[in-house]
């Protein structure tokens, strides 16, 4: 059996590839122009793009199951089915399971509510493609990934404090390896067909706690320096790199919502129910990524 992993060079996709290789599967990794050099030995790399149907043939020939990354198109799913794909495991987000009370086109929503509505529809769109395809499907809906903390690597490497608002803000961040483990099980066994798995870390971990955990893991002094939200708004503004006012507004809303409470995402017990083990902690994530901060 050949399994295609789309988004194979991403934070989760690379772990899916490794997990499948470790299980003795034939793996084809679909990437864009970079990332193929980091694939494990024996993995077939193919350059393909959801937006370019001319690239689908090489990616899908002989494939029976697909790890379907966000951004997948109806044309790709249709071609996959025609090529003989019988199962999709969808790389999704926990927002896909949120109530559909908000219209993402409603500009009167708060920045955070509009962002969550947009994410819900973005990921549900891919889920619906899999559900309507006639193939077996599983949705792996991840919460916020711990890898977001890599954005602090530069100041921590330089021995500088991490500056930001709301030191007490946080969510139950999920280790990418936990997400990949469930995805691999869904690709290889029949135990998850028709399921939508919502995965988070075990508990809320604040921004200050994250920085402290990284410092302990690396043996470096690492501190979180809290600054006012308005100061963060000025320092973060960088529209050339996607940090415009709209993005900054929903990030600040998200942090404010979790600063004095549980946060937008409640911890789930899904991983433990599926594996019999508690999910990896942020402390474990920091230990696994020490080289990224040195």
From TrEMBL:
Name of one Pfam family that matches: NAD_binding_10
Domain of life, source organism: Bacteria
Gene3D superfamilies for this protein: NAD(P)-binding Rossmann-like Domain
Record-annotated NAD(P)-binding domain positions: 7-188
Protein name: NAD(P)H-binding protein
């Amino acid at each position: 059996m050949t399994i295609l992993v789309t988004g194979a060079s991403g934070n989760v996709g690379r772990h899916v590839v490794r997990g499948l290789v470790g299980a003795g599967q034939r793996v084809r990794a679909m990437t864009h122009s970079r990332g193929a050099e980091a694939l494990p030995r024996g993995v077939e790399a193919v350059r393909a793009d959801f937006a370019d149907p001319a690239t689908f043939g090489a990616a899908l020939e002989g494939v029976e199951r697909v790890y379907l990354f966000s951004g997948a198109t109806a044309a790709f799913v249709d071609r996959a089915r025609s090529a003989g794909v019988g199962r999709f495991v969808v790389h999704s987000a926990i927002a896909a399971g949120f109530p559909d009370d908000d219209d993402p086109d409603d500009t009167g929503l708060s920045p955070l509510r509009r962002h969550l509505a947009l994410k819900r529809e973005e990921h549900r769109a891919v889920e619906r493609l899999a559900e309507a395809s006639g193939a077996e499907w599983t949705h792996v809906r991840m919460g916020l990934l711990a890898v977001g903390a890599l954005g602090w690597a530069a100041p921590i490497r330089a021995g500088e404090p991490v500056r930001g608002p709301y030191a007490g803000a946080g969510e139950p961040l999920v280790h990418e390896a936990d997400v990949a483990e469930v995805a691999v099980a869904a690709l290889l066994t029949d135990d998850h067909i028709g399921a939508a798995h919502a995965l988070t870390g075990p508990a809320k971990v604040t921004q200050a706690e994250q920085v402290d955990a990284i410092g302990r893991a690396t043996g470096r002094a690492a501190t979180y320096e809290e600054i006012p939200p308005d100061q963060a708004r000025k320092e973060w503004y960088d529209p050339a790199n996607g940090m415009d006012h709209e993005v900054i507004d929903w990030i600040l809303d998200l942090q404010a919502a979790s600063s004095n409470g549980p946060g937008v995402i409640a911890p789930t017990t899904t991983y433990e129910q599926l594996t019999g083990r508690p999910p990896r902690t942020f402390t474990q994530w920091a230990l696994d990524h020490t080289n990224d901060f040195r």
